[in-house]
């Protein structure tokens, strides 16, 4: 980089760390750890712990190389209202187009806003106006405007890792106008896909009376904000190296031994209703029904680490999945073959890379997903001379780049079954060709590239830009 970097990078997100590559972290942490390791700075967020009011005034700071991680606790009430409540019972289902699962509750709305305020107030003394403050994800929509109210005048960016729903859906949120209005405090707002950006811009235009300006900018009530698309990526080279590590090799071999010549299908997702796990199992069942040659010849392994497991929607989903897998196994199993294995155990990223490499097919079939980094990691982990096939939902953000996957509508069971059959029988030359095309995308649009593009745009944004009063 030739331009000089004035301030530090200050990242704010609900979950902080790990900065080590062994983490079982979700997509957000994987992308950010990479970025901070390269730039240095401060990562600020929740400690993952609760404590009584009054005792939580203490911050915890750990330093790794050039990066400090500073976290604060929440109270039990905050955890319930902010994290379980508004973030994961209201916003998460809403932004994933699941109005059937959305619960609105004014108490959790209040707690969500007050947690945003409290985090902003705790962050304010730790930043200077020369820093670049970059806020992440749906936990902290209001934090930017709260930080401004605390007096911060430097550059302020926001990136939404999950989808931004179309205004038709988004308008169901009580206080939708307030929320989007508060987002205008950010100088730059990043989205995963053009569709997410379009949904946001349309909301600003049709609901808040805004206008498009040249570039990626929009103007709402005199305030000018840039809204752009930055598809998140992975550390592709790092992950490809994981795939040939001894730990990966052990897992690859274990899985191949277990499969005894059968073709392996894998899925790796947090156990979440947005991931289309039930539909995926039904697609696999349809494969066994409609293409019976596969009976006894394929193994389906679903790795599904538990998350948010206190919430009813997640408890119900787990029971449904386990019931379905049990039913399918009961129906098709033979003495020497169990078609489906579901595990809630998490694996290290090296182990996962080995598992991906042992798989002939990877199913990434969410009903809605911001990006989905499993799709990219699967591609990066493959042996280019004998690569596996990616089946990818048309509703995953990754679809915009990974068009050479087998694209499916995850709701269409027959289509999923046909894609599975096609993947399992795909000739080597076609597998190589598709993999090569996807590999180029994954190795080009890396986490580092994502981070640098966002920060370059943020550095050139004008803080708190407004239209001249006489315009
Ligand atoms: C998604 C979200 C992240 C979140 C992760 C894990 O990737 O975009 O913000 O951290 O899921 O969910 P959890 O609720 O366990 O943090």
From TrEMBL:
Any one Gene Ontology molecular-function term assigned to this protein's record: alpha,alpha-trehalose-phosphate synthase (UDP-forming) activity
Entry similarity comment: Belongs to the glycosyltransferase 20 family.
CDD domains linked: GT20_TPS
SUPFAM superfamilies reported for this sequence: UDP-Glycosyltransferase/glycogen phosphorylase
InterPro entries: Glyco_trans_20
Pfam hit, one: Glyco_transf_20
Gene name of the record: ostA
GO BP term, pick one: trehalose biosynthetic process
Superkingdom, natural source: Bacteria
Record protein name field: Alpha,alpha-trehalose-phosphate synthase (UDP-forming)
